Amino acid sequence: MAVLRPQVAGVILAGGRAARMGGRDKAFARVGGEPIAVRTVRLLRDLFPQIVVATNRPERFEDLTVETVADEFPGCGPLAGIHAALRASRLPHAFVVACDMPNLQTEPIRFLVDRIGAADAIVPCWDGDVEPLHAVYATRCFPAIEASLRAGRHAMRDFLGTVRVDWVSEAELAAVRGTAASLTNVNTPEELAAVGGRFVELER
Fold first, then answer.
1. pLDDT for res 26
2. DSSP code string of 83-116
């Protein structure tokens, strides 16, 4: 399959502590009989020429043949993961997704990537909120992200206030097939169960 955009990397953020999952690695919870991480890597590999996983447990991804990077600002949340991944990216843009989205769909990803233009970030608005972890970031955001992290501003919203953002409206996204499924994440055992998921693998 031809890649969706040859100048866009696919980035998976898998560095969280998963406190609401009791510390279990939600990237490897199984949904539909397959670990979320395995499905996510396979889908992104069909779309993008470079895949980078930001994780503090690279050994968990050894069998997936992907590039892994560790946070340079440990404990600083998703923004630190994006920072590490953009440093490793060889391409001018990256589609960034959290590791806990078990039902990613090609259509909404394509819709966001097709909006690449002058903005530094392309971020969905959904369910009355925003979703910065299913979004596109220009690699040129790297200095602004580093400046935010060094200043102790770790929140995604704080960083987004410092760059040009193309906020994609909920109405626009609702017209794209698969958006609701793609933007569903699982942060708790109850949310995992609601999508038919469970933990079955042995921890390394």
1. 73
2. HHHHHH--SSEEEEEETT-TT--HHHHHHHHTT-
What are the 10-residue block averages of pLDDT along the chain, 204 residues in total?
Answer: 73 71 66 85 95 92 92 94 97 95 94 96 96 97 97 95 97 97 81 59 46
Measured CA to CA, the distance from residue 106 to residue 94 in angstroms comes to 15
Q: Positive or negative, the Cα torsion across 137, 112, 98, 183? A: positive
Answer for the pair 80, 17: CB distance below 8 angstroms, yes or no: no
Task: Determine the Cα angle at 76 with ends 173 and 39, to 5°.
Answer: 45
The phi-psi region of residue 129 (left if phi > 0; otherwise alpha if psi is between -120 and 50; otherwise beta) is: beta
Largest CA distance in the chain: 45
Please name the residue that has the structure tokens 């949904």. Answer: 31
Q: Which domains does the chain have, with CATH numbers?
A: 8-198 (3.90.550.10)
Provide the residue type at 85 as one letter: A
Q: Is residue 9 exposed (0-12), middle (13-18) or buried (19+ Cβ within 10 Å)?
A: buried
Closest CA to 103 of 180, 175, 172: 180
